C-alpha cells in the first residue's frame, strides 16, 4: 500500500504538450501527448517503442538509464522538439517507495530485470543524471508513477468516476484513491491519495498457503525470485501458461493424457505460452487451437486430450480471474466504506465481482492507450494543480497579514484612540472613545435586586439580578429572552420601544414582582454619546437596525419608557462591552478591558481621566467605550482591504461604515468567504467552475459554517454535507479542503486584526501608568470568540507577539453583558447611597 502522491484525477481543464516515458518491461514507449481544449478537450498522441537488450536489463543501472536517455533524445530529435523543455511523466512499473510525486525509490526489481545499483535509489534522480550527462536536451520530470496509476488516470480522463486502476498482464497490480486519514505513511489527513497496492506480493507472508497448489509451488521454486510475488504467480500472464504446462505434464505422467506420453517441448519451461491459453479457450476455434498447439509441442493428441487441455486452461484462467475479483472486491468494499454509501457508480458488472460484492456496482473501462497516456495525464494534472494552487495562493495572500502589517494596524489604532480622546480631533476620529461615566468596578459590597435590559441584536434579554454581599457573596440571575421582529427593527423608534416596554412588563409579571420599584441597568450595544451614566444619545444604528426617530435621541429618556404601569428607575446605560468588563470584573479585580467578538465587535477599557478631554476632571479613571468597529472609516485600512472586503461593504446596510468590524465580526466573515468562493469558482479554481444558485445568495454562507468547517473533529465528509446544503452537490473532497483553507485564512485574519487592536489597548494602559510590565485581565464575550475553534488561540498569540510587555489574561464571560449592566447599576446605587 505505497503512497503515490497523486491526489487528483483529470477534471477536463488540462491543456498543453506533455512527454511520457512508459517503462514496465523489455520494451518501453516514449510518447508526446498533446492535450487541447476549446470547449471540448482533445488528446493526440505520437509514440515510439524502444527495446531494452537483455544485457542492459541485467547490467548496471548506469547503462540502463543511459540507454533510456539515448532513446528519449532520439524521439525528441525525430519530432523536432529537442530544443524545448517539456514536462515528462515517468511510468515506472516496479515496486517503489515514493516520498514525493517526482521522487521514487526502487524497492526491488521484478519482471526479469536485474540492473545493479538501482534498488534503494531514486529512479527519477538516476534518469535526470543520465539526461544531464548527455547535455543535448533537457526535460522537466514532474511525476513518476507505475502502470496501474497510469491506467487509472488514462481512463479517468474519459470517466471522472474512475477511482481504481487494475493491471492484469505480464504482471498484476492495482491502485485506488484512498482517504488520506488512513495513510499513516504520509503526513496530513485531509483529502485523498492514490495508493499503489503492489498486490502481486500478496501471500508472501503465507496467507495464501492454504490455496496454493503443488504447481504454484513448483513455478515459484523455478522463478527468479522464489517466495516473492506469490499472488502475481497465480494470476498473471507471465505464469498462467506455465501453470497449464505443469498440470498437463502431471496428467500425462499419471496416464491421464496423451496415452501417458510426454515430449521434450512439453517438458521445457516456457514452451506453453499464455497466448495459447487464450486461443484454446475460444468457444468457436478453441479445440482446433488446442490440437494445433499440442502437435507443435510434438504430441499426438486425441479429441479427448484436446477437450481435457481446454478444460485445464479454463480452470487455471478462471481461478486467476476469481482471485483477481476477490481482491478487487476487497478494494471496492474499502472505497464503499470510505464513502459511507451503499453503491458505487456503475453500469456493467463482472460476474464474480457481483457475486462477492453484491452491494457494489462496478464499471470496467478498458484502457486503450496504455499507461503512457496516464503518465502524461498525471503530469498534466500536476501542472494544472500547480497553476491553480499558485493562483489560489495569490488570491488568498491578499487576505494574509504579516507581522509588519499587524504592527502598522496597532500603530494606526493607537493614533485613532488618541484622536478620539482629544476634544480637538474627536469629531473626525473614527474610534470615538466615548465616555461611559462608569468610574468604578465592583468592590464586593454591592447588594440588592436589579433589573437589566440587554439589547444588542434581534434577540434581547430582560433579567432580574440578585446581588448578595458578605461571606455569602453571590449573584443570582433570572432571565427571559424576547425577539424583536424585523419589521419593528426597521420601523419607528416608538414601535421599537413600545415592544421593549411590553416585554419588560411581561417579565416583571412573570417574576411576580408587579408593582415593585427596581433600578434598571440598560445594556444598549449601539454607538452612543453619554454625558452622564443614565443617559445614552444614539449616534447611529448598526447591526441592521434602522428604527426611525432614534438617532440623536436619549434612549433612556422617559419618553421612550412612558407606557409603564410600574416604577422603572434607569440608573445606567452601558453597552455590551462595558457590561462584559464589569461581569468579569466582579470575579477578577484586574479586569479593566472588555471585548466583544460576536455579531459585531467592540472594546472598552479604563482610561485615565486626564486623557478623557470630553469630560471635566483629571482625577481617577473612567471606562471608555471605544466603538472600534468604525476604525478604518477614514481609509486607515484601505491598504489591507481586499476586493472581497469591498464587495461585502458595498452590499452592506451602511457602505463605508464599520470597516474594521466588517473584517472581523461574525456578521460578515461568512460573506467574505462566500465572495472568495464565488471568485474561485468563476476562475475555475473550485467546484469545477460550476456555481450553484444558492451560493450566489447573499448571507447563505453563515459564519457558523466557518466554526463547523474549521473544527479539528469534523471529517471532510461532513464538510461536504455543508457544501451540499449550499447546493454544491457535486463538490469533491479536494473542494472541501480548499473551502476549509479559505475559511481558515479569513478567520485567521480576523483574529489577528482583533489581536492587533487589543495590543494597542493594553499597551496604552501600560504607558498611561508608566509601567515597564503590565498584568491585566480582559473580559471577552461573543459567539465568534466562544464557538470558533481557533479564533481565541490566534488572537492570544497575536496579542502576545505585538504587546510583549503586557501579561494579558483573557477571561470568557459566561453570563453575558446583562449581568454586567446590573452590576454597574449596583455599583452606581452603592456610590449614590454612600453620597458620592
Automatic annotation (TrEMBL):
Transport: is it a keyword of this entry?
A: no
Q: Name one GO cellular component term.
A: cytosol
What keywords appear on the UniProt entry?
Answer: Acetylation, Allosteric enzyme, ATP-binding, Coiled coil, Cytoplasm, Glycolysis, Kinase, Membrane, Mitochondrion, Mitochondrion outer membrane, Nucleotide-binding, Repeat, Transferase
Which reaction is recorded as catalysed by this protein?
A: D-glucose + ATP = D-glucose 6-phosphate + ADP + H(+); D-fructose + ATP = D-fructose 6-phosphate + ADP + H(+); a D-hexose + ATP = a D-hexose 6-phosphate + ADP + H(+)
> What Enzyme Commission number(s) apply to this enzyme?
2.7.1.1
Database matches in Gene3D superfamilies: 3.30.420.40, 3.40.367.20
Q: Which residues form a coiled coil?
A: 396-423
Enumerate the GO terms in the molecular function aspect: ATP binding; D-glucose binding; fructokinase activity; glucokinase activity
A single GO BP term for this record reads: glucose metabolic process
Q: Which domain of life is it from?
A: Eukaryota
Name its pathway: Carbohydrate degradation; glycolysis; D-glyceraldehyde 3-phosphate and glycerone phosphate from D-glucose: step 1/4; Carbohydrate metabolism; hexose metabolism
Enzyme class, first EC level, given as a word: transferase
Hexokinase N-terminal domain location: 1-157, 393-586
Cellular compartments annotated: Cytoplasm, Cytosol; Mitochondrion outer membrane
Hexokinase C-terminal domain ranges (all copies): 163-381, 593-827
Per the record, membrane topology reads: Peripheral membrane protein
Q: Which Pfam families match?
A: Hexokinase_1, Hexokinase_2
Whether Repeat counts among this entry's keywords is yes
Q: How does it assemble?
A: Monomer. Interacts with TIGAR; the interaction increases hexokinase activity in a hypoxia- and HIF1A-dependent manner.
UniProt function note: Catalyzes the phosphorylation of hexose, such as D-glucose and D-fructose, to hexose 6-phosphate (D-glucose 6-phosphate and D-fructose 6-phosphate, respectively). Mediates the initial step of glycolysis by catalyzing phosphorylation of D-glucose to D-glucose 6-phosphate. Plays a key role in maintaining the integrity of the outer mitochondrial membrane by preventing the release of apoptogenic molecules from the intermembrane space and subsequent apoptosis.
Q: State the family it belongs to.
A: Belongs to the hexokinase family.
What's this protein's name?
Hexokinase-2
Question: Which organism was this protein described from?
Answer: Cyprinus carpio (Common carp)
